[in-house]
Design brief:
Layout lengths: L10 E6 L3 H12 L4 E7 L5 H8 L3 E4 L8 H9 L6 E6 L4 H10 L3 E4 L4 H12 L4 E2 L1 H12 L4 H11 L4 H11 L4 H8 L3 H15 L4 H10 L8
Parallel strand pairs: 1-2, 1-3, 3-4, 4-5, 5-6
Helix pairs in contact: 3-4, 7-11, 8-10, 8-11, 9-10
Length: 229
């Protein structure tokens, strides 16, 4: 069966990690899920473009440290392409600069490799649906980093970008930054869920972003959430 003929309900995954044992573990992990199919593996980020062209995966599980092309560079290159698959970074390294670079590049999630297997599998499902996923420890440290110190210049730049939105789109963007679902946003703003989806799409288009995580980061940078100045 060709990749284009695979069951539409299956989530196609490509695994990119230079550790063969990690790849074997992830393949076994994904193999226990009836709705997920591992399409290909690679040991370096340089192989990602060709594998994506050949297999058209829904999700790429991406390590960070690899010998030639690292996962962050591979993510930036991949997410700059049209119709790119979602990227879920899975790594032992949770340094702030890695997290931010991956998310700003368009990764839909960032998990540590010690995350329980069932959570990794569920995270693949979530990012395939376009939902952001972050390890709790990563989320806390990311929020602390954004909240700490003097970020006036970054806030000014972020607010300048957000100025492209109309008032309702800005309301929706802030709600996304608060981690709210479309249904929750609809309820709070007295909108229908389809209307919220339309606004989210409009925000992504106007700001040149490709997922909700990037919206949330921009809102955090602009310091528009409750409790920030």
């Amino acid at each position: 069966m060709s990749e284009t003929e695979r069951d539409a309900r299956e989530i196609g995954v490509v695994i990119v990690d230079d550790d063969a044992l990690v790849r074997v573990g992830l393949v076994m992990m994904m193999g226990g899920a009836p709705d997920i199919r591992v399409l290909a593996e690679a040991e370096d980020g340089g192989a990602v473009p060709d594998l994506v062209d050949e297999h058209a995966p829904d999700v790429v599980l991406m390590d960070i440290r690899m010998p030639a092309v690292d996962g962050l560079t591979a993510t930036e290159r991949l997410r700059a392409r049209p119709d790119a698959p979602e990227v879920l970074v899975l790594t032992t390294f949770d340094a702030d600069e890695h997290v931010l670079r991956a998310l700003r590049a368009g990764a839909a999630g960032f998990l540590l490799k010690d995350t329980p297997p069932e959570q990794i599998v569920e995270s693949v499902r979530q990012v395939a649906r376009g939902l952001p996923v972050l390890s709790p420890a990563v989320t806390r440290r990311l929020i602390d980093r954004v909240a700490a110190g003097d970020h006036a210049e970054r806030a000014e730049r972020a607010r300048g970008r957000l100025a492209a939105l109309n008032a309702r789109e800005l309301d929706v963007a802030v709600a996304v930054g608060q981690g709210r679902s479309n249904a929750d946003i609809a309820s709070r703003l007295f909108l229908s869920v389809p209307t919220v989806k339309t606004h989210v799409s409009g925000v992504l288009t106007k700001l040149g972003l490709n997922n909700r995580v990037q919206i949330a980061l921009l809102v955090h940078d602009a310091r528009l959430l409750d409790g920030t100045d």
